[in-house]
Give the backbone structure.
Amino acid sequence: MAYLTKDDQQRIDTMIENLRMKTGLSFPEGNLVELAKALGVEVFESKFIKHDNINGFLEYPKKSTESPKIFLNKERPAARKKFTLAHELGHYILHRDKKRKFRVDTVDYSIDDEETREETEANYFAASLLVPEEKLRSILALSKGNLDVAAEYFGVSKPVIENRIKWIKANQ
Ligand SMILES: [Zn+2]
C-alpha cells in the first residue's frame, strides 16, 4: 500500500470529518446517495451492456449549469455499488480540479492493487468514509474480531474491512 503518507491520510480524514459536519451524514447509518445529493452530484444506476467490466464512472459537467454525474453498474452486488459510489465521490472531492471529462473505474478496487496514486486516494477515501475507525474498533471488540460481522455491519465486502484495518495500523 504505497503512495499515501500519514499526512495524505490525515488530509483525507479531515475532509471526511468536514463532510460529516457539513451534511450531518455519517456511516454506516447515513445514506450515500443523500451525501452525493448534498454535494450536488447526481447518481444513476444503469446496465453497461457492452462494458460490463465497468463498476462505475464519474462524468464531470460540460457546462457550469450541469451537475457532475456518477453512473453505477446496476448488475453489481449492493456492497460493490456502495463502495464504487464512495470511491467515485472520493475522486470528485479529491481530484476535481483535473481537466478531464470522465473517470471510468473497471477493476476491483477493494482489493487495493494500487495502479495509481489517485486510485489509492479514492480507495482510502471510500474505506474511511464507509468504515469510520471508532465504530470499526467497537464492532471488532464486540464481535471478538470477526471480520464477517464487521463487513455485514458496515455493508461492505470483507476485503474492504481488511484493507481498512491495514490502513489504520499503517497510520498509527
Ligand atoms: Zn477510481
Remarks:
- The longest helix spans residues 6-23.
- The two ends are 15 Å apart (CA to CA).
